[in-house]
């Protein structure tokens, strides 16, 4: 299979006369795969049980005759209008009890049995009709599950939630105990009294909220699974996927990743934000990690502007290419876009496409064609892997859901926190994996654990064992604050990690952001809004707080445990602070950057036999490397890379 290069293709928005031209242009651009039918339900099933596949037959036939593979979508992301008119009970209900109207997309309740029945009937038909089509290379189930319908609060959801809870807890007494319903008179006498956490006068039960987030991710996953099961039964040899959305809070992708045959992702870094290449890098690293290092597909990106930000800046010349190579370097086996031809009508007509509204005499088209042809030269990269990372950041959806609830010691933006650590590692030139609670940590030299708010005894013990057996463990504030029931950790914050780290937390001391506190010692830094009063039982104090409630107390500690080291950071820090902490930690390890001495906003990642160097800078820059550049076939030494320039070096050396 060639590297994927293509897009969401929505020919149903165009007269058939345009299709021939589409195919001609796809050939010109070097397109290899197209995703078809993502939102086509209403045209495939015109009314209840009346299917019309003739137009899709012609589309697939045309693509096949051009040698283009088809990633066939199941079309279930946008239920048809006749369906919601006939069965309004499938519509979503928000936490205030408002029913959301059809007329956009994803206007369904994931727990609706009627929605699933109709969706599965269509999927069965598609599997029967296209399962042995020679163009079919993959099934694309739904689209971006949960993007527009993350949580539903209807009566049907209440029923499904109760069933989920009964399976989890077994008895209402167990639920009462673990939800702590003795508080505020919340005791239930039967599951039939339990509701989704709808809008309420004040704080809702935190365990109910956490369980509802878990349930809602599962409900979406059940929708995906119902369709995937049909497809797998019909076509066991065709891989099944659904497109993820990076660090997306409503869906616990650790659970989802187990259910797809390959990982695919949609990424839309904001071209107007100079640093957004770092968000994109995070997303790529997450996808590679979810797939345990296996190649993944960039299923959607924009050739230029999107239409859904308050201001939709275009990608600069070269920026789309640079971001594409970043994805390739970090493990992608395909570069796909939303969408092929920019729409003329509908809510996305201002969104860029491979064929822009300006036509083919345009910068965007030329950049698309250039990339398509370059990828043809890089086929050897397909199936190879990004070099194994030696550092992992632990992320966890339970923690994300829980730490962002109301009524906590401080508002924490979990995604921003995780991104800040990932960025700080990027700034050191280090490629990072993500790890979940169940990831085998032994392959990493350093594991960073940012605010793992929810932690079970099993997780804290696993982290301790990792450090004891030679790992470098960096735990940060707000870790193991609560257990899996969102109850404060037994035996004190940090749970069993307290012994490994050699510290005990006596008091949380968040402070206004206008009153930062300094850290002084081996590492100098500044807090944002968090400090703690901690007691050091058995650890070296690396830095102390200067000022604030914890003045003079330990802020950063290190303890040797077994053959490894365990660090505790009792603060949140500015970006420079995180970088400084990492510098101290990395000094104790053998971890080095891929290419030392790179200028800011230039990344270098090793994949297979190549070192891919990508500049995200808006100026030219000279690089301390030499090697054979695969793209030009020429040898380079201290090359000057133009804005958003790319090098793919064989036998790279640092000079
Ligand atoms: C998402 C969707 C696409 C499209 C793009 C626009 O990624 O999957 O259908 O709406 O956003 O950026």
Overall description:
- The chain has 655 residues and is α/β, with parallel strands linked by helices.
- It folds into three domains: 4-80 and 129-149 and 232-381, TIM Barrel (Alpha-Beta Barrel); 391-586, 3-Layer(aba) Sandwich (Rossmann fold); 602-654, Sandwich (Immunoglobulin-like), CATH 2.60.40.1180.
- It is built from 17 helices and 29 strands.
- Strands 12, 13, 14, 15, 16, 17, 18, 19, 20, 21 and 22 form an eleven-stranded mixed sheet that branches. A nine-stranded parallel sheet has the order 7-6-5-2-1-11-10-9-8.
- Helix 9 links the parallel strand 8 and strand 9 (264-266).
- Helix 5 runs parallel beside helix 8 and helix 14 packs across helix 17.
- The longest helix has 29 residues, at 206-234.
- It is globular and about 75 Å long.
- The mean pLDDT is 97.
- The protein binds alpha-D-galactopyranose (GLA).
- Alpha-D-galactopyranose binds next to loops.
Biggest sheet overview: 11 strands, mixed
Count of alpha and pi helical runs: 17
The level-1 CATH class of the largest domain: Alpha Beta
The first-to-last residue Cα distance is: 37 Å
How many distinct beta strands? Answer: 29
- C-alpha Rg, in Å? 26 Å
Outline type: globular
Helix content: 25-40%
CATH superfamily of the largest domain: Glycosidases
Tell me briefly what this model is.
This protein is α/β, with parallel strands linked by helices.
């Amino acid at each position: 299979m060639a590297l994927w290069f293509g897009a969401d293709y929505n020919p149903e928005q165009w007269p058939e006369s345009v299709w021939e031209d589409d195919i001609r242009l796809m050939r010109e651009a070097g397109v290899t795969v197209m995703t078809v039918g993502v939102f086509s339900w209403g045209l495939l099933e015109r009314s209840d049980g009346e299917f019309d596949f003739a137009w899709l037959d012609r589309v697939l036939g045309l693509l096949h005759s051009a040698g283009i593979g088809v990633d066939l979508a199941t079309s279930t992301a946008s239920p048809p209008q006749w369906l919601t008119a006939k069965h309004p009970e499938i519509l979503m209900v928000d936490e205030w009890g408002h029913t959301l109207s059809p007329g956009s997309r994803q206007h369904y309740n994931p727990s609706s049995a009627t929605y699933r029945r109709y969706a599965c009937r269509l999927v069965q038909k598609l599997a029967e009709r296209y399962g042995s089509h020679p163009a079919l290379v993959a099934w694309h189930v739904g689209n971006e599950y949960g993007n527009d319908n993350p949580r539903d609060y209807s009566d049907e959801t209440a029923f499904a939630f109760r069933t989920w809870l009964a399976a989890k807890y077994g008895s209402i007494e167990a639920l009462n105990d673990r939800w702590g319903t003795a508080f505020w008179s919340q005791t239930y006498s039967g599951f039939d009294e339990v509701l989704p956490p709808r809008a309420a006068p004040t704080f809702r039960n935190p365990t109910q909220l956490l369980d509802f987030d878990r349930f809602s991710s599962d409900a979406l996953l059940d929708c995906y699974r119902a369709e995937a099961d049909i497809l797998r039964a019909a076509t066991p040899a065709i891989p099944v996927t659904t497109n993820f959305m990076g660090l997306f809070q409503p869906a616990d992708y650790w659970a989802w990743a187990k259910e797809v045959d390959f990982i695919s992702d949609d990424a839309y870094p904001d071209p107007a934000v100079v640093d957004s290449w770092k968000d994109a890098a995070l997303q790529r690293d997450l996808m590679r990690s979810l797939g345990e290092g296996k190649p993944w597909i960039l299923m959607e990106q924009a050739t230029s502007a999107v239409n859904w930000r308050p201001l939709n800046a275009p990608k600069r010349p070269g920026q789309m290419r640079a971001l594409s190579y970043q994805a390739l370097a970090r493990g992608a086996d395909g570069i796909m876009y939303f969408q092929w031809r920019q729409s003329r009508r509908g809510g996305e007509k201002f969104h860029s496409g491979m064929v822009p509204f300006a036509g083919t005499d345009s910068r965007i088209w030329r950049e698309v064609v250039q990339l398509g042809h370059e990828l043809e030269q890089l086929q050897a990269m397909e199936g190879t892997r990004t070099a194994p990372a030696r550092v992992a950041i632990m992320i966890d959806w339970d923690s994300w859901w829980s730490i962002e609830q109301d009524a906590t010691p401080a508002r924490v933006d979990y995604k921003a926190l995780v991104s800040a650590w990932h960025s700080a590692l990027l700034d050191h030139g280090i490629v990072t994996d993500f790890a979940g609670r169940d990831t085998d940590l032994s392959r990493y030299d350093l594991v960073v654990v940012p605010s793992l708010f929810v932690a079970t005894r099993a997780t804290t013990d696993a982290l301790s064992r990792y450090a004891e057996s030679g790992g470098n463990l960096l735990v940060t504030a707000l870790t193991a604050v609560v257990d899996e029931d969102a109850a404060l950790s037994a035996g004190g914050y940090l749970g069993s990690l307290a012994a490994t780290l050699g510290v005990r937390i006596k008091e949380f001391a968040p402070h206004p952001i206008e009153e930062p506190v300094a850290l002084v010692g081996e590492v100098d830094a500044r807090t944002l809004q968090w400090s703690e009063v901690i007691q050091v039982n058995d650890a070296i104090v690396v830095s102390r707080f200067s000022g604030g409630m914890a003045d003079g107390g330990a802020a950063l500690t290190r303890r040797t445990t077994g053959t490894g080291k365990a660090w505790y950071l009792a603060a949140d820090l500015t970006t420079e602070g995180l970088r400084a902490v990492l510098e101290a930690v990395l000094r104790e390890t053998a971890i080095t950057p891929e290419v030392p001495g790179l200028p800011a906003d230039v990344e270098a990642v090793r994949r297979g036999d190549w070192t891919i160097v990508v500049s995200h800078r808006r100026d030219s820059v000279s690089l301390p490397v030499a090697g054979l550049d695969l793209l030009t076939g020429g040898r380079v030494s201290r090359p000057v890379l133009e804005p958003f320039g790319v090098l793919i070096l064989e036998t790279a050396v640092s000079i």
